[in-house]
Predict the 3D structure of the following.
Amino acid sequence: MEESITFFSVFDGFDNLSAIKSYENILQSIENLILKDYKRVQNQFPFNKIDTDSKRMLHKIAIGNRKAYSIYKYFSQFKGRNIYKNLIFMGIIEQEYSREEPLKKSPKQLLKKELRSYKIEHKIKFKRDFHRFWFTFIYPNMNLLENREYTKVLEIIEEKLDYYISLTFEDLSNALIRSDFKDQILDSGSYWDKYIELDLLIKFNNGALLAGECKWTNHKISKNILNKLQKKTQKSHLNIHYFALFCKNSFSNELLNNRKKNILLYELKDFERLLI
């Protein structure tokens, strides 16, 4: 499953599926199918039809916090919105709506000064992981590729690949929860507000909430991660009934032996259910 998730995070949306796993590992596949063949690949995808400002925006989305206002600040609001609408039309990105509740204003009590200018922000998301991969690693290193310095680009990718995959892992964790609970879920996905960000927040039909943390790391997940997640939700005054941890490696014995019924632990083998 680790290999499958890794390949999916890079090649989702890539046509040449039969050749992807013909190489020894993910880095060899990237080198041979993308880096050394980048000119054909950028013609296969709509990258050559995108203007320079749109490419800049896609790069900012790929490496940033994905919040719309944070992206627009690199352009004028008017120009940024027009670029965004065109990229939506092209099918490269989509909007990920915030699920934060609006601030409650009381006629008798003014909002605190620091909250008066606060705005709920939506995020921008790539529809295909390969598009995100391209604007994370290929677009900013095009000069190196033109000089055939494939090894340098591959070193950059290798250093940051696990961090890059973590967002895909969050999406797949959301899909796994939805698969396990099916019709019981009202709403799910990542969550952010003025206080915190959560990898996952699941709202069930009965009103119960589940908060999730996804860790694409080779380290064992300890009880400390659970404690941090619980404290984080308290900052936002969310009434969480269940907590879920998703890991690439495994969990500590302390966490496995002392977990309560409202704690769900998911390992890579659990993701095999998505393949059924």
Summary: The first strand starts at residue 93 and ends at 96.
